[in-house]
């Protein structure tokens, strides 16, 4: 850790808010109640085919190719709508880089691996991870590493390319191909872009998803005297061009997603997250590797968490759709269930615990000792506080991992319990980092 160079770019901290904050849906000032192209599109859709599910609404508003919120803008950082941990402090990505190296070592230093990131935003997190890989080049020197980014937004993938690749080496682009862009990173690793995880080549991989699962569409359900009913979005009959929530008059197909023994009276379920977790689990069970998932969320306890963010403020989800981010807390108990026992899961554990276990205090001290500039020192300390303070991101954000069974229990999970099992080393972050 001590050998890592300090990143020069200062990162914003103070005036921004993060999406993990949870308030109930607020009422917006009237001037925000404008008719956006997305609202016009949705009103037309609902008029022709009837009320839509919250999942359909989220999907259209966020990732519709023509008008979706994520498709044509940079929403991160001070001037955007929200800020994320990698944008707050370089230390975050550096510690995650260490996590992947530590897992690669613990699993036997495979001759090659793919590092796959889902929803890479500006590419900042991957940039910090790759800097660690370069600095620890002597450890990784004989390993063949390739980078794979899953991103639906062309404008964000352009931003990722400018963060991660050299402008003097041109990118290959082919919008019709499953690999819609490819090139070489600043440190010389091959890098490719895909719209879907399914398109990433199968092979020994480490997967990363930071603040990705929370933007996937959720279905919402309400318990009523007649049983569970799905929450839908309809046009408000009192006000033109205004949307409102309604309850489905009868059972909808998505109700099959609910657990029979559900005790809450309001539930959000994210089937897309289930599909992705199943795909990750199958791949990890087959070829090895691991997945690290970090997000705000709960372990199957919360109810109504669907909310919007615009300009670092909470935003009514039904107002001016397409101008604000939409998000819902990740249900880690659902992710664990969707792994279907094919792999082992660890967590969720709080971000403050994970980063502490990864050695954030030592890393902060090294950077503080190296930096003479008061402004840089102040930013490092503010960044640390934002990531670790339980009132800020320290408690609300969680880490969750999927690993092959044999990584946790020795060579094979089929081993007869009478036999002595080979001891597996602890998984960094979920317990203290220990280099072997
Ligand atoms: N991981 C980044 C960005 C989080 S924002 C960070 O922590 O800073 C969510 C990211 O997921 C964006 O890059 C967005 O374009 C991408 N995204 C949203 N929906 C997606 C989908 N269905 N498939 C792939 N990427 C998606």
UniProtKB/TrEMBL annotation:
Entry keyword annotation includes Mitochondrion: yes
Keywords, ordered alphabetically: Methyltransferase, Mitochondrion, Transferase, Transit peptide
Annotated compartments: Mitochondrion
A Pfam family per the record: Methyltransf_28
Gene3D superfamilies (alphabetical): 3.40.50.12710
Keyword tRNA-binding: no
Recorded family membership: Belongs to the NDUFAF7 family.
Any one GO CC term of the record: mitochondrion
GO molecular function, one term: protein-arginine omega-N symmetric methyltransferase activity
EC numbers, comma separated: 2.1.1.320
Entry protein name: Protein arginine methyltransferase NDUFAF7
GO biological process entries: methylation; mitochondrial respiratory chain complex I assembly
Subunit relationships: Interacts with NDUFS2.
Record PANTHER family: PROTEIN ARGININE METHYLTRANSFERASE NDUFAF7, MITOCHONDRIAL
Protein's job: Arginine methyltransferase involved in the assembly or stability of mitochondrial NADH:ubiquinone oxidoreductase complex (complex I). Acts by mediating symmetric dimethylation of 'Arg-118' of NDUFS2 after it assembles into the complex I, stabilizing the early intermediate complex.
Catalytic activity, reaction form: L-arginyl-[protein] + 2 S-adenosyl-L-methionine = N(omega),N(omega)'-dimethyl-L-arginyl-[protein] + 2 S-adenosyl-L-homocysteine + 2 H(+)
């Amino acid at each position: 850790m001590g050998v890592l160079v300090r990143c020069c770019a200062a990162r914003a901290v103070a005036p921004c808010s993060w999406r993990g904050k949870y308030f109930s849906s607020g009422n917006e000032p009237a001037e925000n109640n404008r008719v956006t192209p997305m609202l016009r599109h949705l009103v037309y859709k609902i008029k022709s085919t009837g009320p839509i599910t919250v999942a359909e609404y989220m999907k259209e508003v966020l990732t519709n190719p023509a008008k979706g919120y994520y498709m044509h803008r940079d929403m991160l950082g001070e001037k955007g709508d929200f800020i994320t941990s990698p944008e707050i402090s370089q230390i975050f990505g550096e510690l995650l880089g260490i996590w992947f190296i530590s897992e690669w070592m613990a699993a036997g230093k495979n001759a090659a691996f793919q590092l796959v990131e889902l929803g890479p935003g500006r590419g900042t997190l991957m940039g910090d991870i790759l800097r660690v890989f370069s600095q620890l080049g002597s450890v990784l020197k004989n390993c063949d590493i390739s980078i794979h980014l899953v991103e639906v937004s062309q404008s964000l993938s352009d931003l990722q390319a400018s963060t991660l690749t050299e402008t003097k080496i041109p990118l290959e682009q082919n919008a019709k191909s499953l690999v819609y862009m490819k090139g070489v990173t600043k440190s010389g690793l091959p890098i490719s872009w895909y719209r879907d995880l399914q398109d990433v080549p199968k092979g020994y991989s480490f997967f990363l998803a930071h603040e990705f699962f929370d933007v996937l569409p959720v279905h919402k359900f309400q318990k009523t005297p007649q049983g569970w009913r799905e929450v839908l979005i309809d046009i408000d009959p009192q006000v033109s061009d205004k949307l409102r929530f309604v309850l489905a008059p009868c059972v909808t197909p998505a109700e099959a997603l609910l657990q029979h023994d559900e005790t809450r009276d309001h539930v959000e379920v994210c089937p897309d997250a289930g599909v992705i977790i199943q795909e990750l689990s199958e791949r990890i069970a087959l070829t090895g590797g691991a997945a690290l998932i970090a997000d705000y969320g709960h372990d199957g306890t919360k109810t109504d968490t669907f909310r919007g963010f615009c300009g670092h403020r909470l935003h009514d989800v039904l107002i001016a759709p397409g101008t604000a981010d939409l998000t819902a807390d990740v249900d880690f108990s659902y992710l664990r269930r969707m792994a279907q026992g094919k792999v082992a899961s660890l967590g969720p554990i709080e971000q403050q615990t994970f980063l502490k276990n990864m050695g954030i205090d030592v890393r902060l001290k090294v950077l503080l000792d190296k930096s003479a500039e008061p402004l840089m020192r102040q930013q490092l300390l503010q960044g640390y506080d934002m990531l670790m303070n339980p009132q800020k991101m320290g408690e609300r954000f969680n880490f969750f991992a999927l690993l092959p069974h044999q990584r946790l229990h020795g060579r094979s999970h089929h081993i007869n319990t009478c036999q002595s099992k080979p001891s597996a080393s602890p998984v960094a972050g979920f317990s203290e980092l220990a280099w072997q």
